[in-house]
């Protein structure tokens, strides 16, 4: 799996949420991460994935998928999971 992002968006995200996209990409290494389609109307299908980054920090990552020769994940934003999201992840209802 490959990852891509807009570097300017990465800087903005890091300033706002204290999470960079390199760290966010490690959420996809979590064998217990869970993904769902975001229920917001965008021009593209956006996904939310929740899981542990670097085995220490529970993050919610918003992203899209693109398939060329390989699967590419384009990260849009990432932040620490909030209370309700954390509970949903822990009880398997995310």
Briefly summarize what is shown.
By secondary structure, the protein is α+β, with helices and mostly antiparallel strands. 27% of the residues lie in helices and 37% in strands. The protein is globular, with a radius of gyration of 13 Å.
Characterization of the model:
The structure is a single chain. The chain is α+β, with helices and mostly antiparallel strands. The protein has one domain: Ribonuclease toxin, BrnT, of type II toxin-antitoxin system (Nuclear Transport Factor 2, Chain: A, Roll), CATH 3.10.450. The chain has 3 helices and 5 strands; from the N terminus they run E-H-H-E-E-E-E-H. It has helices at residues 7-17, 21-25, 83-91; strands at 2-4, 34-37, 47-53, 57-67, 71-80. It has a 5-stranded mixed beta sheet with strand order 1-5-4-3-2. Strand 3 and strand 4 (57-67) form a beta hairpin. The longest helix is centred in the first third of the chain and has 11 residues, at 7-17.
Please state roughly what percent of the residues sit in beta strands, choosing from under 5%, 5-15%, 15-25%, 25-35%, 35-45% or over 45%. Answer: 35-45%
Low-confidence stretches: none
* Residue-averaged pLDDT: 94
| Shape, per Cα inertia axes | globular
Layout of helices and strands:
Layout: E1 2-4, H1 7-17, H2 21-25, E2 34-37, E3 47-53, E4 57-67, E5 71-80, H3 83-91
Parallel strand pairs: 1-5
Antiparallel strand pairs: 2-3, 3-4, 4-5
């Amino acid at each position: 799996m490959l990852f891509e992002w807009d570097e300017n968006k990465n800087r903005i995200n890091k300033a706002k949420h204290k999470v960079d996209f390199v760290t966010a990409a490690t959420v996809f290494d979590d064998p217990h991460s869970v993904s769902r389609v975001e229920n917001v109307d965008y021009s593209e299908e956006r996904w939310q994935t929740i899981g542990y980054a670097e085995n220490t920090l529970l993050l919610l990552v918003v992203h899209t998928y693109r398939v060329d020769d390989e699967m590419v994940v384009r990260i849009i934003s990432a932040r620490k999971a909030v209370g309700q999201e954390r509970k949903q992840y822990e009880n398997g209802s995310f």
